[in-house]
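Troubleshooting: if your tokenizer reports a length mismatch, compare your output against this known-good record of 67 residues.
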Amino acid sequence: MMSLLWIQGILLVSGLIAILFLRKKYRQIKTGEIAMVTFLYVILVLLFTDVVVNWLKALLEHTLLND
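Known-good structure output:
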């Protein structure tokens, strides 16, 4: 579990660096667009934590078993 946290941290940092690099390279990108892309990227990375995956698995098992 700890290695997964390291991987997610590395993904967050590298993704934010890439977003900032794109902001410097393409000046016509608006600040609001960069903020939305950053927000969506963070949400996407956080969706793959153990807690969320286990919750989705339990939810799917519950709904599939009740049908």
